[in-house]
Amino acid sequence: MFTKAFRRLLSNKTFSLLNILGLATGITCSALIFLWVEDEVTYNNHFTHKNQLYSVLENQTYNGVTSTFWSTPGPLSPAVQSSVPGIQNTARMTWADKQNFSYNNNPIYQRGAYVDPAFLSMFSLTFLKGNPAAALTQPNSLVVTREMATTIFGNTEDAMGKSVKVNNSELFTVTAVVENQPYNSSVRFQWLLPFAAYEKNNPWVKTWGNNGLQTFIQLAPGANTNAVNKQLTQLIRTSEPESKDEAFVFPMSQWRLYSYFNNGKPAGGRIKDVRLFAGIAWVILFIACINFMNLSTARSEKRAREVGVRKVIGAQKLRLILQFGGESMFMSFLSVVLSIGLIYLFLPAFNSLVQKHLSLSLIQPVHLAGLLSIGLICGIVAGSYPALYLSSFKPIQVLKGFRDRQNSSASWFRKGLVVFQFSISIILIICTTIVYRQVEHTRNRQLGFDKENLIYAKLEKNVQEHFSVVRDELVRSGVVTDAALCNQNMLEVGSNGAGFEWQGKDPSVNPLVSLIATGPHLLNTMGFQLESGRDFYTDAKADSASVIINRRLANMMGKEGQVGHYIKRAKEQYLITGIVNDFLYNDMYSKPAPLIMFCMPQLTEVLMIRLKPSDNLISAVGKVETIIKKYQPEYPFEYNFTDQSFNTMFFNEQFTGKLASLFAALAILISCLGLFGLSAFSAEQRKKEIGIRKVLGATVSNVTALLSKEFMALVLVSSIIAFPVAWWLMHNWLQNYEYRISISWWIFLLAGITAMLIALITISFQSIRAAISNPVKSLRNT
Amino acid sequence: MIKITDLEKVYRTEEVETVALNKLSFEVKHGEFVAVMGPSGCGKSTLLNILGLLDDPDAGSFLFNDIEVAHFNERKRADLRKHNIGFVFQSFNLIDELTVFENAELPLIYTGVKAAERKKRVEEVLEKVQIMHRRNHYPQQLSGGQQQRVAVARAVVNKPKLILADEPTGNLDSSNGNEVMQLLTELNEQGTTIIMVTHSEHDARYSHRIIRMLDGQTVTENIMI
C-alpha cells in the first residue's frame, strides 16, 4: 500500500509538498507547545514525596478583603510538629536570596536559603557527597549544589570540608554536595544553610507576630487535610490571641499551576495559560489537517475516474476508504519525520522565547508516543473526510465525466474549512495586537517617578553607617545626581502591614499598608513629587519617629492625612513630615496601595543611585563601582538598571503576546499554504471559463478579480465570525487589568484587511498566472 | 478589412518544430463571407487565432482596418478584439455556471456597456436567434443547436464588424447545423464580415469565397457564385 502511496506522492509534487509542509509546520508548532505544557504539568514531579508535601498558607483579612500569603510565623513549624497529629515532618525555609560567598578571597553572590535539617529528606535531595542525616545538623554546615561547587571549587570532589566565608563574617564548611534541582522545580537554590544560623541573627523569627518564612509539612499518607487546617488555625489563634488569620495546607501538586487566590479562595493560576496554549496547539494542528482535507477533495476530479474504475473491477467501499486513509496516514507520518528535524532546529529559539530549557528526546517514551499519536491523529483527521468522500463516488457517474461543481456539498465543506482557518487567523491577529497594545500602554504609563538612569545595588551593613560619606563621594564624582538608601528595589515593595490608627479613624477600616524603610534623599533620587512637607533630615536619627506617606493613604486618613499630624501602630506614634505623590510599584496594572516610608536606614540593604543622563552610562557605572568597592571591598558590586527591571515585570504579558503572535503567524502561514493550493485548483478547474472570458474581451485584471472574488468573500465571512469572538476573548482578558486600554474598532478593521491582503497575495500567484495564460491553449482541448 | 502578407507562425517544442503558417497572404474585404478549408493540421486554427488577435504571428504583416496589428501587445489586442470581433466555436464554449442571458451579456460587460443598455441589446439578439424563451436556462439544459444559437447571439451582441467561426456546425446535426448557417448568412447580409473555418463542403457553399489551405499555405481560392 505504501509503495503506491509513495508513487502518488511523487506524481503530484506540488500538492504533496504543500500538504507535507503545512502538516509539518502544524506538528512542529504544536509539538513545541506540548513540550512547554509537559514542562508545566510535570513541575515538582521529581520529588519522591510530592503527594505528601504541603506548604502552609495564611488567609488574612484587611478591610473586608482576604489576601492569601505564603509566609508564616517562625514558631509555627516546631509547634505543629509536636502538637498536630498526622504530620510526619515539617521544615522552615527562608525566602531564597542572594548572599555573598567568599572562598580564597573571591567573593561571589549565590542564591539559596536557610532551612531546617528535615528539609533534606522531605524534598528527597540527591546527595553526590555527604550524609543526608548529618548534612545540616552543625550550625556552621553548608550544603551546595553541583553547580555552585563547580563554580567555587572547580569540581564537586574538592568541595567537601572546604570553609567559605558568608557575607564576610562567619565561616561555613561544606558538608554535602547535592544534585542541581531540575528547571521545573518550585524549590530552586544553589546553597542551603542551617536555619539555626539564620535564627541566631534574626530574633524576629522566634515571635508569632511576624510572618516571614515558608513552612513545609509532610503529611502521613491519607491524612485528613481539613482536620490539619483546623488545628493549624487554632494553633495560630491561641498563640496570638488577636489574630483572625486562617492557616491551611496547600499541596505541592498545585503549587505551580493553581497558585492564584482571590479573596482567600483558590482561583486557578497558570493552568489557565496551559489550557489556553494546549487548546491553541490543537487548533493549529487542525488548521494544518484542514489543508490536507481541502486539497484532497479539491483534487477529487482527478481521482474520480480511478475510483470509478476500481469500483467497476470490484473494489468495495471499505477497501477504498482504507486506501485513501492509508495515503493520508503515510503523508502524515512523513510530516512527523520532517517536523522532528524542525523541532530540533527551532527548539533553541523557542526556549529563549518561553525562557525554559525544553528538550525533545526520541528515546523518552512520552515524547515518542506523543509524536506517534500526533501523526496518527493527523492521519485520521486529515484523511477521514477525503476517504469517505472519494470512496462514495458512483462508478457510472464518474466514468461519464465527473465535475466537482462549485456548489456541491464537498465544495461547501471546503469553503467552511477555509472560513474556519481564516477566522482563527484573524482572531489571533486581533488578540496579538490588543495584547501588544495593552503592554505598551502600561509600559508608557506615568509611574510617578523617573525610571531612566536609575540603578540600584545591594549594600552591606558597614556602608550604611557611612552613607553620607559614600553619598558625598558619589555626587562629587560628577556622574551621580543623588543617592539614597532603601530596603528594597522600589519597583518591588515586599513588606506590608495593617493595624495603623489615626484620630477619628472608622474602626471598620483597617487597610493593608505598604512599608518602606529608607533614609534621606530618596525623594530626590527617585524623582517623587513632594506634595507637602519635607524630606527626611540628613541626620536620620532626628527623624526616627517621622514618616512620609503617599497621597492614597493621606486621602484615606481624611483630615488627619496632613503634614504635622500623627499615625499610630501598636505603641508607636509617627509624625507625618511629608506627603508624596502616588507612584507605582509591584503591580503596574493597578492603583498604588497606601504606603508609608520610615526613616530607618539601619534596616536598608539597597542603594538607589540616580545617574546623570549620559551617553556613556557604562563608564558612569564604572566610576560608581570604584567608589562602592572602596567601602565594601569584600563584596562584588552587583547592580541593576531600574528601567530594565521594570521591563521584566511584563514578562508574562510579553510572553503571552509573543506566543500569540507566533501562533498568528503560523496559523496564517498554514492557511495560506492551503489557500495557495486551493486557488491553484480553482484556476485549473476554471481554465476553460477563463479562456472564454478572455476571448470575449476580459482583461488580466478582470480575470484576476474574478478568481480572487470567491476567496475574498470567504475571508470576509471569516472576519464577520472572528470579530465578535476576538472581542469577547479580549474583553475578558482585559478585565484582569485595572489599568487597561479600551478595544478600538480599527484593530478589527486592520486585522480583516491584513488577512485579506495576505490572502490576496497568495491567490494572486495563481490567478495572475491563469489570467495571462493564452486562452488558445485552454480552449484547444475542449 | 483584413490584409495579411507573408504571415508566418512556427510552433516549437523540445523535439520538433512545426510550421503552422508559411508565408500566408490573402485579403478579406468588408462584408465578405469567406470559408477556410483544408485537412487537419494545415494551419486553419492557427490562422483563425491570429485573425482573432488571440495569438501573434512570428513574422509577416497583418492589417486590420488598415492598422498594423501584428505586433500589438496583449492589452491592445484585447481592446481591439472586444470591440470588433465575435467568436463562434465548434464546442460552443458557453460558461456552465451562467444562464443563457448572462452568457450573451458577457461581451457587453467587458466593453463597459451600462446595465439597462445591456438588457435591451441582449434581449434583442436572443430574440433574433429565437432563444429568448430560454433566457434563464443554463447551457446544460439546452440542445446542441440551442447552445450554438446562444453562442452566435453572444458573438454578435457587441455588433462586431468581424465574426470568426471555427467549425460552427461541427457538433450539430444537419437541421441544427443549417439553422446556424442560416443565422450566419443573415448576419452577413446585414453587413458583418464572416470568416469561417470548416470541414464541410456543404457549409462552405454558404460563403462567397473558399480559401483552401495545405501545410500553412493557400493552395486555391474559389469564388462562389
List the helices and strands and how they pair.
The complex is a heterodimer of chains A (782) and B (225).
Chain A lengths: L1 H10 L1 H29 L11 E10 L2 E5 L2 E2 L2 H8 L3 E7 L3 E7 L2 E10 L2 H5 L4 E3 L11 E5 H8 L9 E4 L3 E9 L12 E4 H7 L9 E9 L5 H15 L6 E6 L9 E2 L2 E2 L4 H28 L1 H13 L4 H38 L10 H27 L3 H5 L9 H35 L10 E5 L2 H5 L1 H10 L3 E7 L8 E3 L2 E2 L11 E6 L3 H5 L3 E4 L12 E5 H6 L9 E4 L2 E9 L14 E5 L6 E6 L5 H15 L7 E3 H7 L2 H35 L1 H9 L4 H35 L10 H28 L2 H6 L2
Parallel strand pairs in A: 6-11, 8-10, 20-25, 22-24
Antiparallel strand pairs in A: 1-2, 1-12, 1-13, 3-12, 4-12, 5-6, 5-9, 7-10, 8-11, 9-10, 14-15, 16-26, 16-27, 17-26, 18-20, 19-23, 21-24, 22-25, 23-24
Chain B lengths: L1 E11 L4 E12 L4 E5 L6 H8 L7 E6 L2 E2 L5 H11 E4 L11 H11 L4 H14 L15 H13 L5 E5 L7 H16 L3 E5 L3 H4 L4 E6 L2 E7 L2
Parallel strand pairs in B: 3-8, 3-9, 6-7, 7-8
Antiparallel strand pairs in B: 1-2, 1-4, 4-5, 9-10
Helix pairs in contact in B: 3-4, 3-5, 4-5, 5-6
Structure in words:
The complex is a heterodimer of chains A (782) and B (225). In chain A, 50% of the residues lie in helices and 18% in strands. Chain A is an alpha+beta fold. Chain A has 3 domains: 2-39 and 272-440 and 651-780, no CATH class; 50-255, no CATH class; 461-634, no CATH class. In chain A, the strands form 5 sheets. In chain A, strands 18, 19, 20, 21, 22, 23, 24 and 25 form an 8-stranded mixed beta sheet that branches. The radius of gyration of chain A is 34 Å and the shape is elongated. With 225 residues, chain B is an alpha/beta fold. Chain B has a single domain (2-223), classed as P-loop containing nucleotide triphosphate hydrolases (Rossmann fold). Helix content of chain B is 34%, strand content 28%. In chain B, the strands form 2 sheets. A 6-stranded mixed beta sheet of chain B has the order 6-7-8-3-9-10, with helices on both faces. In chain B, strand 1 and strand 2 form a beta hairpin. Chain B starts with a strand and ends with a strand. The relative contact order of chain B is 0.20. The model of chain B has no long low-confidence stretch (mean pLDDT 88). The chains are: A alpha+beta (782), B alpha/beta (225). Chain A binds chain B through residues 406, 688-689, 691-700, 702, 772, 774-776, 779-780, 782, and chain B through 45, 49, 52, 54-55, 74-75, 78, 81-83, 87, 89, 91, 93-97, 106-107, 110-111, 154.
